[in-house]
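=== How it folds ===
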Amino acid sequence: MVGVGALLVAGGLTWTLTRAIDPGPVVALPPTPVSAIASPALGGRSDPGAPTPDRGLTPLDGAYLFSSNRSGSYQIHLSRAGQTVRLTDDDTNDHWWPRLSPDGSTILLSRSPASPLGAATPGGDESTTSLWTMRPDGSGLTERIPAGTFGRLGPARWSPDGRQVAFAASDPVDGRWRLWLADAERFEPRPVTDRAGVVLDPAFSPDGTHLAYVAHPARYRGDPTASAPLEVFVTRLDGGGEVRLTFDDRGDRGPAWSPDGRLLAVETEVDANYKVTGRWALRIVSVASGEVSTVPSAAAVNLAPSWNPSGDGLVFHRYLGAGEGFRLAMVDLVAGRTLPLALDGRYNDVQVEPVTGPPGWP
């Protein structure tokens, strides 16, 4: 493989990244922190099953936030110890992409007018999206970035120290998509990138020095609204030192860093022509090498991965077929098994994030 070296410091580690010109074959990742990824090609299992008796599943033992339309419009819910509590109650608006601050004191979320009944996911019109915060019990809901501040506004994520948030938004003047940072006190945004094409879904590295995101490659001259080929990139917080990690001309979205900063989990459109929905898989990208492994699933559509705190599993939402809706699930990357987090109901649960907090939280 021919490559171009680039130095990256993230997650407390320093690597020389090889920017592959030829993407090469899909290969297994190193054993740390994921000792094996379930795939027939890697000697693992591809069928879903129950967890092994001696293995705990962190999101079920702990807590997780998610958005659901089980009450009609999409609202934020907290599930903990088998009990689910609705945190937002304004049915005229969708509330979505909940993110708990590192100190456990504040939930960051997006809000937009309620989606049409039956919409698969919230936030279909980013031109009407606003950014809000609230306490973990749902009180103190406060608007931070009003709708109309940007042409289109994507969901936001916290920095590891909780002092900043990162998001993608299109400039209201020139319409160009950029990554933005805002301080967590005044929420005054400042641009990070100024590149051609679409740039979306920023996520802070665990040490807070870099952002991972998806963007059109520099050579791309096609439909600016197309999801493919959105590729995975990493850059410093000042927008410099951009490194491209994927080179397969597929549509990647929503990169999420593993807790140790070695890996990125993404959702990828692997077959745009599969039935009506297309086929979407979860993939794991090595930050050091750009090598990619696919996480197997019985579902055709698997979206929005987040890591569990121990770094050996992913939670995500998946679509199992007509009449089933979207369901939350966890894949144990060591045992190679997938477990549903919700078993019934004719509604959509989406955008799940495992959370931790002090004793008695929230």
In short: Residues 3-355 form a domain with the Neuraminidase fold (CATH 2.120.10.30). Residues 92 and 228 are 33 Å apart (CA to CA). The mean pLDDT is 80.
